[in-house]
């Protein structure tokens, strides 16, 4: 009976890993895009053997090698068992990013980034929103002060920033 279980485990492990094939395809696409954009890049100096196009080519070849290697390992089924993914934290972070992008020009940097901070804290299981939103706004306002007033950089200003 134990031989049968071992053979079943080997058969299960030998199945190709579909998720790894998707990752390999993604790596190959990124490698192709980098290679193509580098090949069509205009204005590259040709007076030196190693110019601005050398490293993007190296990176694209490296990514392509990783794509082939990943596809080979996926075919063999050698990847370790993955843990189940929790989508709720991912949705909190993506929702926070979407809220920041949508609200940045209307409510300003501090409030929009404070909401992103609170959503990310919620995704990591830290504090209730009534506590993390004000903390995020205060931290973001301090960052806005450093960049806008200290470094004279332009960040979107809302009602809170206009008080200063």
TrEMBL record:
<feature type="transmembrane region" description="Helical">
    <location>
        <begin position="89"/>
        <end position="117"/>
    </location>
</feature>
<protein>
    <submittedName>
        <fullName>Tripartite tricarboxylate transporter TctB family protein</fullName>
    </submittedName>
</protein>
<feature type="transmembrane region" description="Helical">
    <location>
        <begin position="129"/>
        <end position="147"/>
    </location>
</feature>
<feature type="domain" description="DUF1468">
    <location>
        <begin position="22"/>
        <end position="156"/>
    </location>
</feature>
<feature type="transmembrane region" description="Helical">
    <location>
        <begin position="54"/>
        <end position="77"/>
    </location>
</feature>
<keyword id="KW-0472">Membrane</keyword>
<keyword id="KW-1133">Transmembrane helix</keyword>
<dbReference type="InterPro" id="IPR009936">
    <property type="entry name" value="DUF1468"/>
</dbReference>
<keyword id="KW-0812">Transmembrane</keyword>
<feature type="transmembrane region" description="Helical">
    <location>
        <begin position="20"/>
        <end position="39"/>
    </location>
</feature>
<dbReference type="Pfam" id="PF07331">
    <property type="entry name" value="TctB"/>
</dbReference>
């Amino acid at each position: 009976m134990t031989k049968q279980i071992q053979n079943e485990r080997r058969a299960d492990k030998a199945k190709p890993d579909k998720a790894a094939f998707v990752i390999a395809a993604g790596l190959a696409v990124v490698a192709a895009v980098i290679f193509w954009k580098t090949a069509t890049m205009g204005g590259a100096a040709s007076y030196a053997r190693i110019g601005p196009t050398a490293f993007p080519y190296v990176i694209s070849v490296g990514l392509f090698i990783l794509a082939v290697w990943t596809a080979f390992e996926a075919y063999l089924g050698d990847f370790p068992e993955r843990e189940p993914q929790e989508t709720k934290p991912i949705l909190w972070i993506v929702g926070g990013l979407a809220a920041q992008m949508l609200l940045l020009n209307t409510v300003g940097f501090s409030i929009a980034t404070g909401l992103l901070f609170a959503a990310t804290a919620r995704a990591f299981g830290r504090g209730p929103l009534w506590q993390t939103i004000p903390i995020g706004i205060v931290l973001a306002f301090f960052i806005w002060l450093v960049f806008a007033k200290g470094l004279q950089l332009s960040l979107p200003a809302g009602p809170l920033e206009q008080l200063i």
